[in-house]
Automatic annotation (TrEMBL):
Residue span(s) of domain Phosphatidic acid phosphatase type 2/haloperoxidase: 100-249
CDD domains, A to Z: PAP2_wunen
Localization of this protein: Membrane
Name of protein: Phosphatidic acid phosphatase type 2/haloperoxidase domain-containing protein
Transmembrane helix recorded as keyword: yes
Membrane topology note: Multi-pass membrane protein
Record organism: Lymnaea stagnalis
Keywords for this protein: Membrane, Transmembrane, Transmembrane helix
Family indicated by similarity: Belongs to the PA-phosphatase related phosphoesterase family.
Top-level taxonomy: Eukaryota, Metazoa, Spiralia, Lophotrochozoa, Mollusca
Pfam families noted in UniProt: PAP2 (PF01569)
GO molecular function (one): phosphatidate phosphatase activity
Length: 312
């Protein structure tokens, strides 16, 4: 651990976080995806355009707000049920700030990886042809021998689609909804496993974790049914979110977020009385057989070996 004061650490970490977010913002404002062509008879990119079942605003609200509420409520409950004076609200707020800061760092990493791959690959979405409506009269879809031609130069004729929407039609792989929702769900699941202690129910925590996981899966499914992504896009985004959630929580979260039992005093062993301790059993042999050289036995002299042999 670093010996820097907490305030200096916070300033340095904030600057690093901002530096991480700046390229992401520049990519969104000025970035252009790689130009990718198509085949005229490619039915995989000819599906009809559909509006989002889960909009980007709803995705961000759920992905950022869900962990925000879960972490806050968990820490408040821990303070409310903790009878020790050392566990104050200030400690809970400090733990909450660290946990959510780790979450934000991981989310920024997920978005940076997702968008970098999107703009580098430039894969067309399943609704590309319906959204773009290229003018097929301006190019030949086949070669003179009948072989399909790969079209790189085309012009979209759909006046209802703006430039931003057309640019988005080139950003199919990987699915941002999948990577963000899976990361948010898994981070929350890991956090609940580490920090939430439920003594009155064995099923409450697993049910909460299952709820977040099912929500992420449903979000991934809608991206395929809405014709926004191919199945491989969703799988790629889910894998990316899973790997980064595990790495961020395992390598950074476990260093900064205390476990549920880390603040508990050690359990002292119970004192045991002498009477409760096991006693050594008394010998089963008669005393005279244990004593070979007794100085006086009923007024007689020393006990010799011959006497012992005759006695036996």
């Amino acid at each position: 651990m670093s010996n820097l004061p907490v305030s200096k650490q916070a300033v340095i970490d904030v600057l690093i976080f901002v530096a991480l977010c700046v390229p992401l913002l520049v990519l969104h404002l000025l970035g252009e995806p790689v130009t990718v062509g198509f085949f005229c008879d490619d039915v995989s990119i000819g599906l009809p355009y559909r509006p989002d079942t889960i909009s980007q605003a709803l995705l961000l609200l759920a992905s950022f707000g869900g962990p925000f509420l879960v972490i806050a409520v968990t820490e408040i409950i821990r303070v409310a049920v903790d009878s020790r004076q050392s566990h104050r609200m200030r400690t809970a707020l400090f733990t909450y700030a660290k946990a959510y800061a780790v979450f934000l760092f991981g989310m920024a990493t997920v978005c940076m990886f997702t968008d970098s791959i999107k703009y580098s690959v430039g894969r067309l979405r399943p609704h590309f042809l319906d959204l773009c409506k290229p003018d097929f009269t301006k190019f030949n879809c086949t070669f003179p021998n009948g072989a399909p031609r790969y079209i790189l130069e085309y012009e979209c004729t759909n006046t209802m689609a703006d430039g931003k929407l057309l640019t988005d039609s080139h950003l199919s792989f990987p699915s941002g909804h999948a990577s963000v929702s899976v990361y948010s769900a898994l981070f929350t699941i890991f956090y609940l496993q580490m920090r939430m202690e439920i003594k009155f129910s064995h099923l409450l925590r697993p049910v909460l974790q299952l709820t977040f996981m099912v929500s992420a899966v449903l979000c991934c499914v809608t991206r395929v049914t809405d014709h926004k992504h191919f199945t491989t896009d969703v799988i790629g985004g889910a894998v990316l979110g899973t790997v980064l959630a595990w790495l961020v929580f395992e390598k950074l979260g476990r260093r900064l977020i205390p476990t549920a039992c880390s603040n508990k005093p050690p359990r002292l062993p119970r004192a045991t009385s002498i009477e409760s301790e096991p006693q050594t059993p008394t010998p089963l042999l008669r005393p005279e057989r244990l004593i070979i050289n007794h100085p006086y036995r009923h007024g007689s002299g020393p006990y010799t070996k011959e006497d012992f042999a005759n006695k036996v």
